[in-house]
Amino acid sequence: MVKSSMRRMLAGNGLFYPIIGFASFIAFLYLSFGDLWVNYSKEINLSFVERNGTQFFVDGKAFYINGWNSYWLMDHAADYSTRPRIRTMLQAGAKMGLTVCRTWAFNDGGYNALQISPGKFDEKVFRALDHVIAEARRNGIRLILSLVNNLQAYGGKTQYVKWAWEEGVALSSSNDSFFYDPSIRRYFKSYVKTVLTRRNIYTGVEYRDDPTIFAWELINEPRCMTDPSGDTLQDWIEEMSTFVKSIDRKHLLTVGLEGFYGPKSPKRTTANPEIWAADLGSDFVRNSILSTVDFASVHVYPDHWFHHKNFEEMLKFAAKWMLSHIEDGDRELKKPVLFTEFGLSNDNDDFEPAQRDKFLKMVLDVIYKSAKRNRSGAGSFFWQFLVEKMERFNDEYGIVPWESPSTYRLITEQSCRLARVQGLLSTQIEHVKNFCAPRKN
Fold first, then answer.
1. Of the N and C termini of the chain, which has fewer Cβ atoms inside 10 Å?
2. Using H for helix, E for strand and C for coil, what is the string for 227-279?
């Protein structure tokens, strides 16, 4: 009744339709740009992570990492219906005492592409990446941002070669021409510069000035099999790492290697999983020793690399693999080593859920022992964590950690163990103090 009277009154004065029009305009603004009013004021003060020798440091204290992969954050932030998953995942990571998440800062061509074509970007998707970074900062989580994929997923080097071919400037249709074609190198440098100098619409901070970003990763799992000598990939790493550092000297940089030893390495036959691993065009020590590379990265997938070993044999290899690379970090590289992906597939013929926990515990134990001894094994990142209702985005490695109490316990225990070695970060105090038991004498 009151609403009816008000409507007659406004209509009589000629105000009703203008007010309705204004309200509709405000609704349109909110639906289009509503995320601009999201409160990001609850920011946690973060410092840049630094490196001194074989260790990372934050605010003068050694920093060993209990981290995880959620490659999908930007992609899901681009859609308002799935955007809440980003906050859910980052809040959950913080509550488990995790400190760094590795995720993609690329999507080249295709659905929800950040880079639609060379040098052309979708602002909506860039705002999604802005949101991921702002939300990570809000939750005290740092990010490793990977800049391109060696694989075809999310475009990768295949898309860059396709663009060059379509524009009639490609030297070759080979995917590996990504590493040596001058036109494609220019495409990638343009992309890198655009990302590093992007000003976040929510925080007002350029990416290159934002301590929320732990590090840049040049490329996920680089391989250049057309040149097994490794010279082509090495030249690309030298050029691109130097280029990144010319724009951003505040952040750490890594290559994104799997950790295989090349044909000239003395470990090619003693530490590699099999003979093929030396012929992929990469070399762990050679690629990582450059002065423009701040730390080394390694992946751990024994069940993907072997097809005729049982679980216990693969577990033994994985432990040896990790220790070999930590030894390299201590003796050869004099740099930290991060195990930026590790996982166990549930598609293995003999898979049992308890195996995944046993594998996880082995990896975390190696990192804990490295931290206790101030060695170069500086952290590990589980591949991969999801939230509920993401089955379509899962591979055989993904888990929702809080749905497995035993796995969740192992993860939080690692956060506590590392906190006892290095002390709690200011970003961890709110959560970790609630589940870390006092140290027993």
1. C
2. CCCCHHHHHHHHHHHHHHHHHCCCCEEECCCCCCCCCCCCCCCCCCCCHHHHH
